[in-house]
Amino acid sequence: MKAIVTAPVCALRAAPARESTLVDEALYGMVVELLEQAAPGWYRVRTHYRYEGFVCGESLLLGDETASAWEAQPKKVIRNKNFCDVLSAPKVQGWILTTLPRGGIVCVVGQPSGGWQQVRLADGRTGFLPESILAEYYTAPLSSDEGILRQALVDVAMLYRGTHYRWGGKSPMGIDCSGLVSMAYMLCGILIYRDADIREGFPIRKIPIEAVKPGDLLFFPGHVAMYIGHGRYCHSTGKVGDNGFAVNSLIPSDADYREDLREKLTQVGTYF
Q1: Contact, 106 vs 100, CB < 8 A?
Q2: Which residue is catalytic, options 84, 107, 188, 235?
Q3: Any catalytic annotation for residue 223?
Q4: What three-state secondary structure class fits 211?
Q5: Does residue 10 lie within any of the structural domains?
Q6: Are 95 and 31 in a shared domain?
């Protein structure tokens, strides 16, 4: 059976309990596969990017037909702000139906008008968002041009500047290293492995460090970053003093060079 995520940020946990470790987050409008009912009110689910965890049923709208109908509708994604209110009317004075994070998915109704886009939520309610906050919902790479796609990956990753570190996080409320790079790729229409590793069956392959270009991934033990060019990379780190999104350098003479990471660089991966 399938289900639609109806919580703005839906926790995937290591065990079917609220006190369990966060391993990932699914975002509003994503469709997940229910693998089993693991405990009363809890399901083990698999996301569309093939990651698994335990979810409280309160965050899901269950039903194959409902999920299929949702998947068939035209969609857009919250991209250009960290969060966005879905309002009852196309004006800032409308009351708030819900608040969605970057990466949340909505169905669009008709064409934008006066800078507003009418949208439909998973439960059937309709509301309005500023059109400028929305972006295309890509299920395939947004461009076949390598240069355009590489720049898009970097641009999306940089949108998470200012986000604090959260183990298992994948939203502007908090994000971890693999959450950052996997969301950057996902918002550009590419699904990569959720954790800090190159995994067979996903579209990242190993290349030598000398071949690295913007948008490629740098792997360290238990950590991953995105190369952004000119010897620099962005990542989400739990290091004291950074505590979240940071930009560092691979060049020893730079002030933000991190020797502890450069010496432990294990592999470089590319989609291209």
Answers
A1: yes
A2: 235
A3: yes
A4: helix
A5: yes
A6: no
CB 234 within 8 A of CB 245: yes
For residue 55 the two structure tokens come to 């979810």
Catalytic-residue membership of 164: no
Query: Smallest Cα–Cα separation from 271: which of 185, 200, 197?
Result: 185
- Tell me if 141 is assigned to some domain: no
**Structural domain ending residue among the three candidates 27, 44, 71:** 71
Instruction: Name the active-site residue from 107, 177, 188, 234.
Output: 177
Contact 101, 83 (CB under 8 A): yes
> Over 56-112, what HEC string results?
EHHHEEECHHHHHHHHHCCEEEECCCCEEEEECCCCCCCCEEEEEECCCEEEEEEEE
Look up the domain containing 221 and give its range.
Answer: 146-270
Which position among 107, 188, 223, 234 bears the catalytic label?
A: 223
Give 49-99 pLDDT, tens digit per residue.
Answer: 999 999 999 999 999 999 999 999 999 999 999 999 999 999 999 999 999
| Crossing angle for the helix pair 146-158 and 177-186, to the nearest 10 degrees | 130
Whole-structure pTM value: 0.96
Alpha-carbon separation of residue 212 from 112, 218, 232, 254 (angstroms):
40, 9, 11, 19
- Asked if 135 and 79 touch (Cβ cutoff 8 Å), the reply is yes
How many folded domains does the chain comprise? 3
Tell me if residue 177 is catalytic: yes
Q: pLDDT tens digits, residue range 83-93?
A: 999 999 999 99
Within a domain: residue 240?
A: yes
